[in-house]
């Protein structure tokens, strides 16, 4: 919890600082597109003791859902850099399907997708490196099931949830057009099932 608060504070500080900075390096808005590989996705799920959630456990009332595993994912995005300090991005991401053996030797699966929009603050620390803070909203959705299991309300578990997301990271600008970045992000989800996700990603961005 403390790490999430620190990350949120760092992201907000970077965005606010960027918004009040003297922004005049760019003559006009420039657009970009890019992609990221999320190497780490630390998901948290509801620990409620319900029949539907127990379908995803190895035993009734177990402490962990068998689909709670770290899996890589992919993000693709389109953005705009309004000036040296401010930008925005919209994107789509997904986490590869997780599988696990639940009680009754049934196979449990989940695949997570996400639509998002972020405001970005850039803080140049050298001619090549920018620190990044982001604040936005994401629509995270699960596609979870357990083969052969009976559910009371599976739609509630898989309901898409719009939640706040924050991020912090850095971007290395190789040249005028190409850059690489690393980001850490936290996003809230559906309190009835997939409560949140914390990700670490690396990627590239092309500005045109």
What does this structure look like?
There is one protein chain. The protein has helices spanning 2-20, 51-54, 154-157, and strands at residues 30-45, 73-81, 86-102, 106-124, 129-146, 161-173, 178-188, 194-207. The chain contains 3 helices and 8 strands. Strands 1-2-3-4-5-6-7-8 form an 8-stranded antiparallel beta barrel. With 208 residues, it is mainly beta. The relative contact order is 0.22. The chain has one domain (2-207): Porin (Beta Barrel), CATH 2.40.160.20. Helices cover 13% and strands 56% of the residues. Strand 4 and strand 5 (129-146) form a beta hairpin.
Short description:
It contains 3 helices and 8 strands.
Major β-sheet profile:
8 strands, antiparallel, barrel
Mean pLDDT: 89
In spatial order, strands of the major sheet run: 1-2-3-4-5-6-7-8
Oligomer: single chain
Number of helices: 3
Question: What's the structural blueprint in terms of helices and strands?
Answer:
Blueprint: H1 2-20, E1 30-45, H2 51-54, E2 73-81, E3 86-102, E4 106-124, E5 129-146, H3 154-157, E6 161-173, E7 178-188, E8 194-207
Antiparallel strand pairs: 1-2, 1-8, 2-3, 3-4, 4-5, 5-6, 6-7, 7-8
């Amino acid at each position: 919890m403390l790490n999430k608060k620190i990350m949120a504070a760092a992201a907000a500080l970077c965005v606010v600082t960027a918004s009040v900075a003297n922004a005049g390096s760019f003559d006009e808005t420039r657009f970009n597109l890019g992609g990221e590989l999320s190497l780490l996705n630390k998901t948290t799920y509801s620990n409620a003791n319900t029949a539907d959630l127990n379908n995803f456990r190895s035993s009734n009332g177990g402490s962990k859902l068998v689909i709670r595993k770290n899996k890589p994912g992919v993000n693709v995005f389109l953005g705009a850099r309004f000036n040296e300090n401010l930008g925005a991005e919209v994107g789509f991401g997904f986490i590869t399907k997780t599988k696990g053996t639940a009680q009754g030797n049934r196979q449990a699966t989940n695949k997570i997708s996400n639509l998002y929009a972020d405001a970005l603050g850039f803080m140049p620390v050298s001619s090549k490196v920018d620190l990044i803070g982001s604040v936005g909203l994401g629509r995270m959705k699960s596609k979870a099931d357990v083969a052969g299991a009976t559910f009371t309300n599976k739609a509630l578990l898989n309901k898409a949830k719009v939640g706040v997301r924050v991020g912090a990271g850095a971007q290395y600008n190789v040249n005028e057009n190409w850059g690489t970045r690393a980001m850490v992000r936290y996003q809230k989800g559906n309190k009835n099932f997939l409560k949140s996700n914390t990700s670490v990603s690396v990627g590239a961005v092309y500005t045109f």
